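User: Last request for today: this protein with protoporphyrin IX containing FE, please.
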Amino acid sequence: MNGEASRCPALAAGDPDLTDPATYRDADYFAQWRRARREHPVVRLDSPRFGAFWSVTAHAAAREVLERPESFTSTRGMRLGGEAGAVSAASGGMLVVSDGPAHARLRSAHAPWFAGRAVARLKDTLRSRLDAKLAELADGTPVDVVARLSRSLPTWLVCGMLGVPEEDWEELAALAAAAFDETETSTAAARRAASAGVFAYFAELLDRRRPDPGDDLVSALLQQSGADRLTDEEILLNCDGLVNGGLGTTRHAVSGAVLAFAAHPREWRRLRADPRSVPTAVEEILRWASPPLHMMRTATEDVRLGDALIRAGERVVLWIPSCNRDESVFAEPDAFRIDRRPNPHLSLGGGPHYCIGASLARLELRTLLEALLTHVARIEFDGTLVRTPSTFLHGLDRLEVTLMPAAAVPGSPGGE
Ligand code: HEM
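Assistant: Here's the final one, the structure of the complex with protoporphyrin IX containing FE:
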């Protein structure tokens, strides 16, 4: 492949458009990526929706892009379809669209709240909420896991950490979801209004916390002193970034965990037989479910990636579920194996923007699996599954399963 614009053969053949949200609801996009990895792992595409960009489906090339921020910047947006005005307003002030010293300063202001020890103290509350929830859901009747579990679990964690009062969680989560809604019924104006709603909410929260600080991230950022303290605008931008970074991704990871075990009952039996596999199972869930669908960077200079010559100013899109099933890195990549090791998936990114919430995401999945092992003997798939029509996040809008209670199965943990 050379630097000339070339149309992806898979797209030209009438295969699904990777930039159409509907593709991720209905089509076999994994087959298309498999072919792309083999035939053109780095290729320039021309999308009817988003214009020209370089499409990366291979693990090694994607990792290289993530680890070279001086050649592939985040400051011009990290996803296709971001509004130019919103990106330039956030660039340099919000973690995910900053680079270099500006990014390092923002990252160190947030870091203490995401360190292992700070995150670990959330575990007990999380576990007791999960125990209560699963005691209710694991009753041997069908349940939509997305509506009843996956939506609430991330909200407890992320809104709790930010100090959002519990009575506001649902409203805030709904606004954050609407700001990224790519379904046919949503409009750009509706997305803008929802995003403005999230900012307005946090502006008010800052005003409340300033005179009356709590034990939360927003209060801590407001109370910082010294030359590096964040401005109110930076705090607002990063509240938005944390809600956007933390809610949808973890929601899809939770549904992905339940789907993985519903679809692979043998792996569930293995996990029950040996709960010490929980940490490797968490990594495999992240790889297999791949909650981020794509990440984007913009070349700052002419740069070679594999056989491709990417010109300064051109956008590069990394398809994460494809990289996570790259057969040159993962043996039997489509199989779900709770003891896969090593597991260098890219679901939490790589390089300087590696997910700041990674410990939180892992704690959430670990605690979920531990609670499922206590309450659930078997997870049965009832045949209803609706995928999310999104080009940004990869997951489910609906997943009906039956959680067979552990207590009903003699000899199971928590059973009789
Ligand atoms: C399973 C759950 C999660 C997944 C799959 C995930 C995935 C990612 C990925 C792939 C990136 C890199 C983005 C890029 O390089 O452009 C990222 C960054 C980020 N994530 Fe997460 N994330 C998860 C959970 C969370 C949580 C719980 C939070 C916060 C409460 C969070 C906050 C962020 C932030 C603020 C960034 C930007 C970091 C930076 O630019 O330095 N994430 N996440």
